[in-house]
C-alpha cells in the first residue's frame, strides 16, 4: 500500500514521530523505507502530525517499514505479548458416515520472552520478530496489507516453530501517533492477531484426533456387530418365510387333493356357474355360516362363497390369486338376505373371477332358502 503520510521518520537509527522533532527539513529525518530526506509536518492544527518525502519519488515502503519497525521495537523493549485465541474443530467420520467432532480451543494469553530477535532470516523468509523462551521460539509477522500471503503462510507452517501474525493494517494515523493506542494494538489487543502455526494447538488437536479415532473404532465395531445381527435376523426371517411358504404350498396341494376328492361326490352344476346360481350359493353359504358355524366364516376374495372359519383356503374354487378373509355375520341375515343380495355385486364379480367352481357347497344346514324372481333379475344385471 502506498501511503504519502509517513508516521515515523528515522534519525541516527532511531524512529521518531513527527511531533517529537522540529518542523520541516530541520527534523533531520530520513524515510525508513528509501532512506531519503523527509519533511516533518507538525505545526498544523487540523492535520495529524506526519512526515512527507522532501522530494517526490516512487517510495512505497516508508509507511509500512516505519510502522513495522516501531512495532518490533515495542515487542523487543517489553518482551511481553498477548497470544491469539485458537478455535479449531477436529472431525473423524465413522464407517456409517457419522461425523464425530471435538472442539480444540485456546484462550488469548499473555507470554513473556527471555529475549527477542529483530528481523531474522528464516530460510530466505524474514521473521519480523522471534521470541525466545527456554527452548521454544515464536515467530512474529507484522501485517500492514490487506493482501493474503498464502505462500508465506505455507512456508511458515513448514518450520518447526510456532508463528503468529499481528494485523496493523487498519490502524489510522491518529492511532499510530498515540503511543498508548499503538502499544495496545501491538502488544495487547487479542482481536488483531491470529496463529499461522500453533505447536500447542496441534498437540491438542492430535490428542482430540486420537480420542475421536478410538471412539470411531468402538462405534465401527458396534455398528458391524449390529449389522451382523441384522443380517442374521434377516436370514432367519427369510428361512422362516421360506418354511412357511413351503408349508403353505404343501397345505394347498393337500387342499386341492381334498377338493378333487369331494368334487367327485359333490360336483358343481351348470346352474351353479350362472350369475343366478352363484347368487343362490352365496346366500346359502351365508345362512349356513349363521346356522352351522355360529355366524363366523371366511370369505373367498374370488368367488365370494363362505367357508368354515378355520379354513385356510376356499373350499369351492381354485382361483390362484384368491385369499380368504374372516367375516362375522349379523343374526338378521335370514330376514335381510334377499335385500342384501338384491343390491350386491358379488354374484357378478364371482362369475368374472371364477367362471367354474370345483365343487358345490354342502347346503344341508341351509336348505329351503329360495331366490325370488325379483332377486334373479337383479343378480343378472
TrEMBL record:
<protein>
    <recommendedName>
        <fullName>Competence protein CoiA-like family protein</fullName>
    </recommendedName>
</protein>
Amino acid at each position: 500500500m502506498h501511503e504519502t503520510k509517513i508516521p515515523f521518520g528515522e534519525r541516527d537509527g532511531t524512529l521518531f514521530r513527527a511531533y517529537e522533532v522540529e518542523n520541516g527539513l530541520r527534523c533531520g529525518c530520513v524515510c525508513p523505507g528509501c532512506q531519503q530526506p523527509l519533511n516533518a509536518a507538525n505545526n498544523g492544527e487540523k492535520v495529524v502530525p506526519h512526515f512527507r518525502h522532501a522530494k517526490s519519488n516512487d517510495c512505497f515502503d516508508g509507511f509500512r517499514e516505519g510502522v513495522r519497525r516501531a512495532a518490533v521495537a515495542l515487542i523487543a523493549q517489553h518482551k511481553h505479548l498477548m497470544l491469539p485465541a485458537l478455535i479449531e474443530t477436529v472431525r473423524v467420520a465413522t464407517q456409517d458416515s457419522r461425523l464425530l467432532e471435538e472442539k480444540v480451543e485456546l484462550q488469548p494469553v499473555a507470554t513473556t520472552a527471555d529475549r527477542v530477535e529483530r528481523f531474522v532470516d528464516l530460510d530466505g523468509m524474514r521473521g519480523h520478530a522471534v521470541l525466545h523462551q527456554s527452548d521454544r521460539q515464536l515467530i512474529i509477522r507484522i501485517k500492514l496489507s490487506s493482501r493474503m500471503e498464502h505462500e508465506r503462510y505455507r512456508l511458515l507452517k513448514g518450520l518447526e516453530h510456532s508463528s503468529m501474525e499481528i494485523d496493523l493494517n487498519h490502524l489510522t494515523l491518529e492511532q499510530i501517533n498515540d503511543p498508548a493506542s499503538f502499544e495496545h494494538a501491538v502488544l495487547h489487543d487479542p482481536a488483531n492477531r491470529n496463529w499461522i502455526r500453533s505447536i500447542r494447538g496441534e498437540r491438542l488437536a492430535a490428542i482430540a484426533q486420537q480420542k475421536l479415532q478410538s471412539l470411531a473404532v468402538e462405534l465401527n465395531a458396534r455398528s458391524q456387530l449390529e449389522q451382523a445381527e441384522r443380517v442374521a435376523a434377516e436370514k432367519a426371517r427369510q428361512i422362516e418365510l421360506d418354511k412357511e411358504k413351503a408349508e403353505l404350498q404343501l397345505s394347498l396341494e393337500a387342499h386341492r387333493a381334498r377338493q378333487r376328492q369331494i368334487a367327485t361326490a359333490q360336483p358343481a352344476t351348470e346352474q351353479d356357474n350362472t350369475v343366478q346360481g352363484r347368487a343362490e350359493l352365496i346366500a346359502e353359504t351365508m345362512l349356513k355360516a349363521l346356522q352351522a358355524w355360529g355366524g363366523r366364516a371366511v370369505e373367498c376374495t374370488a368367488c365370494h362363497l363362505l367357508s368354515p372359519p378355520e379354513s385356510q383356503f376356499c373350499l369351492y374354487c381354485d382361483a390362484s390369486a384368491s385369499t380368504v378373509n374372516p367375516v362375522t355375520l349379523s343374526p338378521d341375515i335370514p330376514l335381510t338376505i334377499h335385500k342384501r343380495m338384491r343390491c350386491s355385486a358379488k354374484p357378478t364379480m364371482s362369475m368374472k373371477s371364477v367362471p367354474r367352481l370345483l365343487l358345490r357347497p354342502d347346503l344341508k344346514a341351509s336348505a329351503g332358502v329360495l331366490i325370488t324372481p325379483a332377486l334373479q333379475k337383479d343378480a343378472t344385471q
